[in-house]
Structure formats: C-alpha cells, structure tokens
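Quick one:
INPUT:
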C-alpha cells in the first residue's frame, strides 16, 4: 500500500488529472495513521416539524492491520444509557457490527441484510457509521467543481456490497486537503435519498483533520440528524481488548 501512495504522491502531473479511485486512495491515506482516538459526540435528531431530540455519546476508535474498530456508547437519554455499538470494519470483505441494548441485556449482531437500517432512529444507517474504506467501491471519473465557493473534486462511487441501501454516491472532496465535504446518496431506485455534509474542520496534533459538524438530511422523509464532535484525544494507548464483545457488555 505504501508503494502505491508513494507513487501517487511523486507523480509530476497535478491532482486534477487523477481518477475518482486515485483521489479516494489519497483521501483515505490522509485520514489514517492516528492509531487510536477518543471523542465526545452530540447527536441531534430533527423531525420535519423542526422538533429536536438530543443524545450524548462517547466514541473510541482503533486502527489495526485488518481495518478499524469503533465503539460508540450512549450516555443520554436515560432510556438509552449504556447502549453501545461495536464495529469491526475491513477494507475488503464483510464488516461486523454488534449492538448492545441494556433493556434486553443481550448483544445482537447486525446482519449484512440489516445494515441499511437506521442507527438508533437517526438518518445515519448502520452502513454509514462504519469506516468507508476506498476498496469498498468502484469509481467514475473525477471532475473539478465548486461547492459553496470551495474548490472541489467530484466523482461517483458505487458500493460493491449487494446489500447496501445505495445504488450510487456522489462525493465532493476539497482540492486543498482531499477532505470529504459532501456525499449525495441515491437509493436502489436511483432517486436522491440523503445528503451528507461535513464542516468546521480542524487540524489536531498537527496531522489529523477532523470535522466538528456532520449533517445528514433525508430528502424523502424530511428528517435530519446533526452530529457535533469535540474533545478529540489521539494515541492514548487503546488496545484490541477495548473493542471486544466483552468490552461491549461492560460499556457504561
């Protein structure tokens, strides 16, 4: 993998000439290398009438040779406290997800056929929560566009997973740092389903770009979900044992 990245970075021609896949490879490489991270998350659910419901979570992630592991733990509201989602994401092959709900006191594995469903009543599906490694898609050609005055690359990517809820996705990467700024998701009937936007990016530890805001708008049901991320901590020494099913049961 490092040989591929080195070759891409040494190409004399500008990034404008790259394909969607080549851009995705570079974008993926630029957000890796954090080893582990912890962050606080506020999830805001907004219904079509503008009514809001708030949830607070803690999120931990760990890079490992076969992919990435993530544990999301709900602190509020009271009826969801202690609920947790464990994800093991792989660049190739099926991802694995387990959901623990204290009310039923058991761990439920999220099957491949069910990952297109909503994550805890939000507009983010279970498949949106896992790491979107570039190997999970096929790509179209990239074009140069502007997004709200920001110079971007735009390309289409198609999920390889036959159980994905999406027929295709249109991705916008900013041209300066190759950060994902927007994704349009099309359903299996090729109708626009959702739009994801990321904003308020900050550089952490002089090398890790992360957005403070993520927003998902469902065009078909009028609902929205807003994620606010804060208090990022990197390389604190998290281990594999912190991302096991036993850890899921211990989540509080």
């Amino acid at each position: 993998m490092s040989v591929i990245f080195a070759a891409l970075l040494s190409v004399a021609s500008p990034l404008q000439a790259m394909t969607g896949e080549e851009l995705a490879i570079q974008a993926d490489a630029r957000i890796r290398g954090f080893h582990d991270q912890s962050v606080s998350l506020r999830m805001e659910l907004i219904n079509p009438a503008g009514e809001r419901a708030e949830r607070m979570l803690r999120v931990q992630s760990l890079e490992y040779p076969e992919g990435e592991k993530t544990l999301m733990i709900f602190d509020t509201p009271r009826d969801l406290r202690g609920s947790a989602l464990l994800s093991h994401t792989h660049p190739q092959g099926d991802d694995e997800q387990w959901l623990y709900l204290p009310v039923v006191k058991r761990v439920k594995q999220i099957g491949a056929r069910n990952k297109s469903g909503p994550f805890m009543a939000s507009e983010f599906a279970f498949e949106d929560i896992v790491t979107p490694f570039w190997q999970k898609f096929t790509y179209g050609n990239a074009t140069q566009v502007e997004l709200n005055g920001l110079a971007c690359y735009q390309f289409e990517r198609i999920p390889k997973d036959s159980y994905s809820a999406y027929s295709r996705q249109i991705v916008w990467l900013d041209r300066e740092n190759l950060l994902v700024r927007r994704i349009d998701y099309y359903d299996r009937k090729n109708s626009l389903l959702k739009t994801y936007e990321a904003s308020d990016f900050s550089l952490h530890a002089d090398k890790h770009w992360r957005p403070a805001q993520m927003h998902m708008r469902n065009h078909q049901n009028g609902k929205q979900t807003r994620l606010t991320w804060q208090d990022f901590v990197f390389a604190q020494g998290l281990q594999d044992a912190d991302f096991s099913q036993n850890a899921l049961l211990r989540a509080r």
